[in-house]
Amino acid sequence: MPLHLRGTVLPEGVVRDVWALGDRLTFDRPSGPADTVADGGFLLPGLVDVHTHPGAAEGETVFDPAVFAEQIAAHRDAGTTALRFPGLLGDVPAEVRDAPDAPRMITAGRWLAWAGLSKNAGFHTVTADLVTAAVAEAKANDGWCKLMADWDFEAPPVPHELLRTVVEAVHAAGGRVAAHCQSAEGVLGAARAGIDSIEHGMGMPEECVGLMAAHGTAYVPTLTAFARSAPQIKSTARGRLWQEGHRTMIRRVREAHDAGVTVLAGTDSAPFGNVATEVEHLIAAGLPAESAVGAASWTARAFLGLPALTEGALADITVYDADPRREPAVLRHPRRIVLRGRVIR
Ligand SMILES: [Zn+2]
């Protein structure tokens, strides 16, 4: 039997009746009975976390399919209907991806790190040929690859000419590139290279804002993860550099948005199913509430190539008692979750 939901559809703000027929939405009343699962409230196409790395318990660097499944369930139960993984320790287990209640998943495969960087983390896949590795990773996964534009924020990043060659090659293969950037030089190189999404962007120089806008680069600051780390940062020279980079990135969030850059919500680290917190950080950084909610919902879906609540769209809907644009905290309490046309909650 079709599912029927009635409520204020966001971001349009219009009260509508929506039906889910299998994994498709329609605004045209189907013939025959339907099961009304929501009447009233505010309807979103679910939440989206565009920067999350499920698959390992905190502090672990070995992929565990059971942990992956648990963390995906936490995302799903929070109303997160779509996820992008910019770096995973293993392959998405088929039984999780193919489950009838699986959030939409877009993986970029492994973290690719150029061998010329001064240091790399143990979990990075180090390669001397970043171009070939990036194209292969985008092809082997969901059209995305993830590379480290830098790692040590006091050492030179990947040269921007090399990043540009990677971007051109991956684009020619139909893929997109996400880049980890945590130093001023690293962000600048990624912005010059026309990377598709800049992750973190600590210490971002001012000129990056215009470069991102010109290249259509999205910005995923992952403020939640940095806010969590901030209290542990010591007041050493390196720590002060970190703190300054953190303050700068927060300032750039609003500047980037004002310049027309697509700012998106990603949490990066545990807990999973926590993208509502990133919405609050984005608002605190100066994003208008509607844009911050969109960054974790309809805007992020558009960025990932997924429809929002439109005729014929995929049947993902979350329902809230209050308008999240006025009360963002309500995003923590979905009254109803429909994913792939199934009632999850
Ligand atoms: Zn990350």
Entry summary:
The mean pLDDT is 97.
Question: Which secondary structure elements does this structure contain, and how are they paired or packed?
Answer:
Blueprint: E1 3-9, E2 14-21, E3 24-26, E4 35-44, E5 47-49, H1 65-77, E6 80-85, H2 94-97, E7 104-107, E8 111-114, E9 125-127, H3 130-140, E10 144-148, H4 160-172, E11 176-181, H5 184-193, E12 197-200, H6 207-215, E13 218-220, H7 223-229, H8 237-258, H9 275-284, H10 289-295, H11 298-304, E14 317-320, E15 336-339, E16 342-343
Parallel strand pairs: 1-4, 5-6, 6-7, 8-9, 8-10, 10-11, 11-12, 12-13
Antiparallel strand pairs: 1-2, 2-3, 4-14, 14-15, 15-16
The structure holds zinc ion (ZN).
Q: Give the number of DSSP strands.
A: 16
Report the CATH topology name of the largest domain.
TIM Barrel
Order of helices and strands: EEEEEHEHEEEHEHEHEHEHHHHHEEE
Distance between the termini: 17 Å
The top level CATH class name of the largest domain:
Alpha Beta
> CATH superfamily assignment of the largest domain?
Metal-dependent hydrolases
Query: Major beta sheet, specifics?
Result: 7 strands, mixed
Gross geometry: globular
Q: Spell out which ligands are present.
A: zinc ion
**Tally of individual helices:** 11
- Which structural class should the secondary elements be placed in? alpha/beta
Radius of gyration (Å): 20 Å
Fraction of residues in helices?
25-40%
Strand order of the largest sheet: 3-2-1-4-14-15-16
Number of separate domains:
2
